[in-house]
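Q: Is it fine to ask for two folds in a single conversation?
A: Yes, each is treated on its own. Send the first.
Q: Here.
A: Result:
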Amino acid sequence: MAYLNSKIQKWMPQKQRVAVDSSPTLHDIFDTINSTFATLDPRTTLPLEFYDPILLSFIDRITVDEEFAGYKSSLEYRTLGIGHLLGEVVSRMTDYARREAPKDTAKIALFGGHDSTIAAILASLGTMEGDNGTWPGYGSSVVVELFEGTNLGPRSTCSKGDMQSLKDRSEPRSIETSEIINRRTISGPWDGFYVRLKYNDRSVDIPGCQGPGLHLAGNPTFCTLAAFKDIIDLFTPPDWKQACISNLDKPPFPTKDESIES
């Protein structure tokens, strides 16, 4: 915070110190800076100090942690914040895989959301790390794709040959998974179906799908549908409204890490 204040405190009301909970909040300041990137109009440009690269990286890191760290570390946070939406995504996929979807089911479902929706999905799945660890920019998107690995007729989305070419694109790698992941049943009605997550048109590896049998052999980018469903089921609320009014007398954060890959 010392660096931030050395740059922009002088521009604050009454020259007050910048803080996460100041007025304006650090989040407010970040939103204002980002809004100016949407136009080239000099009348909306802020003083140059606000565009200092180091300052921007610090603000990004702090606001991302403030807003989204809970999705990664708290099961309840994930359940209330994004579980209902991802539960619907999985429900559509499993209906399709079980052949229970209507014949005229759309091939694509579009969900409108905010930057906070996108980041919540990434953080909940443990994928908001590295290059994906910054605040989602304007026009960002998350795509969840369903692939079928064998040619079973009109519903097929990927042939055996296509899946073999996917296997050849990367070498197998083993990543330690949690006890919860290792207890999963990886066979059943979802055999032959795979899920791929893409963020801004780039494939993302989901930590919970990295164990043996939890992804397409040779390509961990493709989770088995069973593994992906098991992850989402952990935080899909059976009754979202009831979940919202539960545990009101308990601390907001768990006493130990509840991240998917922990």
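Q: Second one now.
A: Result:
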Amino acid sequence: MVFTIASLREAPAINPVNHKAKAIPALNPFNVYGRVFLLSWWGFFVAFWSWYAFPPLLTDTIKKDLNLSQAEIANSNILALVAALIVRLIAGTACDRFGARWTFAGILLLGAIPTALAGTATTPHGLVVLRFFLGILGGSFIPCQVWTTGFFDKSVVGTANSLAAGLGNAGSGVTYFLMPAIFNSLVQRQGLSEHKAWRVTFVVPFILITATALAMILTCPDTPTGKWSSRSRDIQRHLDMRDTFFSAATAGDTKANASSIDSGGLSNDTMQLNSGTAQGHYTDAQAQEDDLLAAASWELVEEPTIKNSLEAVGTLSTLTLIVVYFCSFGTELCVNSILGAYYARNFPSLGQTGSGSWAAMFGLLNAVFRPAGGIMSDAIYRSTKSLWGKKMLVHFFGIVLGVFLILIGVDDPRSKSVMFGLMTGLAFFEEAGNGALFALVPHVRPTSNGLITGVTGAAGNLGGIIFLLIARYSKDSANYPQVFWIIGIITIVGNSLVAWICPIPKGQLGGR
């Protein structure tokens, strides 16, 4: 479907087979698809805001107030990622069992509790414990992606996922401006001491997180057809449509019936799902039947069991997602944690505030670069009708990301223009690569979409933990260039090793 500005505010065309939107009404919260999209990215945004709320105040105000050592700060950073990893694994299965909306709201409400209690930390140990439980909010990424996947058609799902994730991920950058601004306002205008002000600051994200969770529960459905628990009733309708179509096709009226079904609303991308590369001995009727089955099964998520979960996670296609996101999002988490200190080391004139502000730009660029990756991926898919195009784009981004990491590590720039230029290039290939990857994720075992999304997302957190451990235990803890080039080599090797793997498991419905 061709993008137009009007599509951002108009009610979208709907695919009648799966009731998913063929456009993204991002500026129309009165439309249910626009409202789901808004709360998907906004819920992720406020969750990341709170998850990253400590670092902007941690290096100075909170560090002095709680007498923190650098090792204790590093421990709190790592434990926050560990908690997010655990929650992401759980959230994936929860999305498949209970639906993304309730999983999303549950994560926000659970994460709101440590957010409200953040100001009660009085010791380094208390801070570490609170930051661990704040890591719950890092799991919000999983239902964000699963929810948008459930509401938007394959022709635009990459754009929807990457745009929601990009806007939400920007919360990690915005918090570097918002938390100090709220803190300064409380000190300068309300007359609070620094000891009290940083604690009161956390009330703001707590209110927003709670309000957002309630809005999800009260104003949005689980799926385009209603309740998650009743989604299985659609199965027979899809199968009946398949049988009616195929019976007519084998009676010699295939062409007419295919046209009528297409004109009834199936998008060309859905009807042509890999038909162009079907085996030559397939009849048109058989190929169309496979396409219709693929469209019908797209939203029919299986009840998770140990058997089907192991089958879904155990494929090489899933391994590809795990390896790539381990490298790309792992890089993002590590860079977010050390970039401010790296800037301060190479450019002392920036000071703490200047270094933090420039480091925050890395996270803020997600709002532009991550959607760009998803949009490019969708465009390639519409043009080539092949998932290999999507997959090769992912590996291109990953390998070039590795090159930028090595360049920064080897050169260790002392010129601001060179450093900021290289970091902008790194941000583009890293963040666009994440967007492109999650444009591919919905195609891999769509009947276990929550599980696959959760495992992939958790792999990113695992990458962040491993890379931060490399940074902490390197020969010189301030040798940031070494950390960059080591991660760069890992990223290039990882992408090269899995580039040959088929985008989706062999034999998957619609996989021809």
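Q: Anything structural to flag on that second result?
A: Two points. The mean pLDDT is 85. The two ends are 23 Å apart (CA to CA).
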